[in-house]
Each structure stands twice: as structure tokens, then as C-alpha cells.
Amino acid sequence: MKKILFAVLVLGQILYGQNPVNKDSLNAKQLDNVVITANRGASLKREVPVAISKVTQKTINETKATAVYEIVNKVPGVLMVNLGNEQHSMAIRQPMTTNPYYLYLEDGLSIRPMGVFNHNALLEINQFNLQNIEVVRGPVSSLYGPEAVGGAVNLISLKPSLQPEMKVGIQADQWGYIRLQAAAGATVGKVGVYVAGLTSAQRDSWMTYSDYNKDNINARIDYNINKSTRLIWTLFSGRYYSDMSSPLNEADFYNRTYKSTTDFTYRKSDALRSKVTFEKEWNPNAQSSLTVFTRDNELGQSPAYTGGIKWTPGQTTAKGEINSNNFKSYGVLAQHNQKFDFLDGSLVAGGLYDNSPVDYNAHQLDLKANLNPGGQTVSSYEIIAERPDIKLADYNARIYNTAGFAQLTFRPVSNLIITGGARYDNMSFDYNNNIDHSTGSKVYDQFTFKGGVNYNPFSCAGFYANYSQGFAPPGLTSIFRAKPGTGGSTGTPAEFYYNLKPAEFDNYEVGGWIGCLEKKMNIEYSVYYMEGKNELLNVRLPDNSTDYRSVGETLHKGVELAVNYIPNSQFKIRAGGTYAIHEFVDFKLSDKPTDPIQNLDGKEMPSAPHWVANSEVTYYPKWLPNLRAGVEWQLVSSWYQDQINTVKYDGYNVFNGRIGYQYKGFEFYTNVMNFTDKLYAYNVTRGNTPTSTPSYSPAAPRTFVFGLQYHLQLNKKKNDEK
């Protein structure tokens, strides 16, 4: 990786001269932003009937994030939960969850094939290769397919610049984190090239057993055959390895004893993605694209999280596991965009085919549990024996994803836009379950629909309404995992989750925007009501193992608000957040008459805070034009730790500060994360039994991130004159 970074630097030195980078101008006209994700093509934000937010390159550059969650959490209604070392879960119109209800896209193409969801998919992303990030809240299954239920996160990568440029940087903190990054690009004649890479490492942090390494490289070549035809090739290669520290028990958390109970758990990822896109503009009203893509991922872990280690309070033994999930993909995505004179209409239509062979295996680890005094918590786990003979899962399958989609937009009158779209998805797979020696095939298919309207009667205000459907089949790792208490060393035949149903959602939404104070202030709001059926949830059993259940019905409802205010050239103020309620409508938890709680009807879902907000004030002083300074506030209110609503965690308020100064091509910056040194946890969960103890995912103490970045850009016109 270091050789790749050095090569990028050399390329930049060959191509570039020096020219200071101009500071981006402040702009409060958020509704004039062009977005791609909402309609699979360029559209004004005010003309799409969905809740969509765009994080601009300016915001990304000023955030100087060590992990993507620092950027994504600036979007109102979004909480990307930091689980350490860039591991994460998500909460968009859902509780904080690892379930497959989010679609993670890279330039409009899903990072994973349907059926192989991983809540940690964004740890593969190269933060130094982001042009912007678009987040759609609510179902977009009619355009992007299953799993786009809570929303879709589209990470849009940088393109080759017309003028040669290069940037290189380093950042580090006092806890042993360091990252080197470099990027370079240029367009010469018909060919544009862009390369971006980073290498990061963590050593001897505030949390024991939490080292990690990450090496990423992105490359892109644009070949402009002529003014209307182009070929685009992209490549991503990433390697990630992390020690996986365990959650903390309550005493260790409040004593700030950041000690992992494991020293053998890990997560690793080797990812390779490549695609070639042919784009053709037939005329100003018609464009087509054809993308051929491949994916090759090898994922492995020995999990430390609750459920990955199974332990019953008071016992001196426990069970862990080692698992591996590998897949390849070969696919094609075709799309055509057509505009019509009739009613100023436009059509987006296309299809997808994805062939993805996948294999997964998991086997048991026998562990010794060294107990703390009282025997209700564990001080440390030790491996007694690795048991490849005790299989928890072992299957191979070939997934076939096919889909067709279409969306029509037309404008019957000048201020009214009507949108309707539909998609058919068919996920089928042939499988071999090597534990029960069964073979077979399964099919999950669904039509999803959306309809919406935008009405912009004034230059300063507009409204929208939509109805959209969501659809998410269960992941293969859920279907082929042996049920707790079966298989392995239990003496009973293994049973599997062959009868899990796909989750279905109906979303009803209204919203709008207001531009006021001579467009210095923009206000955006949305109100949603989403009904879910057959949601897949994890039920924690007394030994901390996990049972999967398809919930009968759930309800998700909330209000989202974003305010952007730029009173003058020196200040930018952003405030945003959501108030939401997520609850069970029909969920039978147990059939046992001895259990005190049989169903959870009317109870709130766990890990579902009512309030989530993120706001920021940034100062650009006239007396020192190249300085910026900002203060960010993150609020997450209390949530229930368990499904039976007996215990809450108080949530947290945390403040972050950022300051940076540019001198010619250099930028010096410091980020102070959690600058009040608050003790808080990103998530706290527990089981439903009286003996269950909470598990805390702790946040870092006060952290100082120091960085230096250098940007070189050649002014082509001046260079030609020379």
C-alpha cells in the first residue's frame, strides 16, 4: 500500500505545478442542489418527492473524518452507530440495528448483492475518495431494490479533474491512530485518470485489544470517445483487519475500565470491486448506460459481540465461534433516461442481473469464562479448544438476482410534478446445506411501487407527498444458521430458519421546504408513517445466543427537520434532527406459559431513541480569511435496552470541535472529539430475562486529531501561457 501511495505522489509531482486552492463559497440554497440518487439521474432536490440529503464535498473536506459515521451523522434523521475501528450499525427510520434494511451504494451500485447484507459494509469505504454523499430516508425499493427500506446511502466518488491536481495528507491522534492518504488525477486529451489511496493503523488505544489496519485504493479512468460517448472503468481494492474488543459490563463501563474480555476475537475483510460503464447521449433528451461489474469479497471473524459469545451467568464455560463468509458477483445493470415534450415528462427504465456464488461456514470455540466476584459478569475469556467438528453453519449457494424497474415523471402544470415508479425483484438461490445434507432452491420475489407529488407554488416554499413500498428478504446467513439448542453437541438434529418470511413495508410521507430571509435560511421537514410486516428481529436468549423471529407487525413514525442558516459570510449554522417512535404492533415473544411476558404488542422496540439531533456552527472570520472553526453537538435521547421495556439507557449529549487553517497549498487542522470528555456508550443492550446484564459499547474519551494536508493544482490556462 505504501508503494501505491508513493506512486500517487510521484504522479502528482510529474503533473502539477503549485496554485493555492480557492475556498468554496458559502451557499444556503440547499434546495437548488442537484441530486442523483432520488431519480437515478440528475434532478433538482426540490423536484423529487422524497426526503433526501446531500453532504457536499465542502462539508466532507472540512470534517476531516477518521470514519464515515462522522460525516453521515450530519444528515437529519440519520444515526450511524460507531462500533469501533470503523465498524458500525445504522438507524434511519428504524431503531439502531444490524438488520438488512439499508442499501449501501457506491456510485449508484450496491456494495453487496441482495441476500448477503453486512451492516459493516461501509468500513470498506475510502474516505479520501468521496465527492459527496447522498442519503435517501424511507423506502426506495422501487428504484434500487430490496433492503432499501430504512433508506439508501449513496457514496459518490471523485472523478478525474480537468486540471491536474494532487492532494496528500496525514492525520493522527493521541490514542495511537495514524492515517496516510494521497490522491492524484488529471485529464489529458480524451482520457481522465484519478487514483486515491489510504493506509491507516491503530495501536495501543484507550480500549485494550483494539488494534486495526486498513489499506484502500480506488482508481478510475474515463475515456471520452466523443462528446456524447464515454467509457468509465473503476476499481476498488481494500484490506481490513481489526482486533474486535468486547462490549463492557456495567461496572467496567462506569469505572472507565476499558478492558476487553477477549484477546482472540477479530474481523477481517478483503474486498475487490470493479466495473466498466458505457454511457451514450443519443441527444439532449436521451441517455443510456450499461454497466458490467464484478465483486470479490472474503469476510471472516471471531465475534466478540453479544450473541457471538454465548455465556450463561454463573457458568465457568462459554462458547464462541469462527466464521467465514465469501462471495463473488458477476452482473450487469442497464438503464435508459428519456425526456418527453408531452407534459414535460421523463422516464427512467432499466434492469439488473446479478449472479453471486457464496459460501459460509461457522464452527464453535470452547471457552473458559473467568468470572468477576459474584459470578454475574466475566473478567476474561480463554480459548480451551477450537472445534471445527461442531458446525454452526456450513453452506454454499448461488444467488440469482434479477430486476426490472421504471419510473415516470411528468409536469401537468408548471408548479406540479407527479412521479410514479415500480420495480419487480426476483431473488432465487440454489443451495447445499452441508450440515443436514439438504439441497434445494428458494425464491423471494416482489413488486414494489411508489407514487409521489411535488407542488412548488411559491419561489420560497414547496411541498411533497409520497407513498412507497419496501421489501427485504432474509439474508442467507439467517436462513442457514442452526437454531439455538439444536445441532452441534446438543444431541438433537440441527434445525434451520427455512420458513423466515420477507419483510414488507408501507410508507406514507409528507414534507416540504421553506426558503426565507432572502434565501439565507432553508428549512426542510418531513413527516412519515411506516408500517412493517414480518420484520426480522433478534431475540436474545438466557445464554446470550440469538434466535431469529419474524415479527407480525411493527410501526415506525416520526418527524424530521433540517435548518440551514447563513446570516453573513462569516457564519454557517446547521441544525437538524428527528423525533421518532418505533413500536411493536403484533409480536408474540414466547409460547411458554411460564414466561411472564408472552407478547410485546404496544411496547417500544429496543435501541430506539425518540430524539436524535446533530447541529453545528462554523465560523469563517474576515480578519483571518483562511481560518475556519466549528462546534458540533450530537444528541441521542434515552432508549430501552431490552425488548420487554424494563430498563433504559439515558442516551447522551456530546460536543465536537474542529479548526483548520490554509496557507497556500497547506492545510493544518485539529479536531477535538468529545471535548468535554463525557462518559457515554453508543449502544447498550440486554436480554429479556431477570438475570440479564447490560452490554455497553463505549465511546472514546476526549480525542485530539491532528492533521496536515497539501493540495497542488495546476491552472491549465496559465500553464499553456507558460
UniProtKB/TrEMBL annotation:
PANTHER family: CATECHOLATE SIDEROPHORE RECEPTOR FIU, FERRICHROME IRON RECEPTOR-RELATED. Residues 219-674 form the TonB-dependent receptor-like beta-barrel domain. It comes from Flavobacterium enshiense DK69. This is TonB-dependent receptor. It is found in: Cell outer membrane. SUPFAM superfamilies: Porins. Pfam families: Plug, TonB_dep_Rec_b-barrel. PROSITE patterns: TONB_DEPENDENT_REC_3. Its main location: membrane. InterPro entries: Beta-barrel_TonB (IPR000531), Beta-barrel_TonB_sf (IPR036942), Plug_dom (IPR012910), Plug_dom_sf (IPR037066), TonB-dep_rcpt-like (IPR039426). GO terms for cellular component: cell outer membrane. Residues 45-152 form the TonB-dependent receptor plug domain. It is a multi-pass membrane protein.
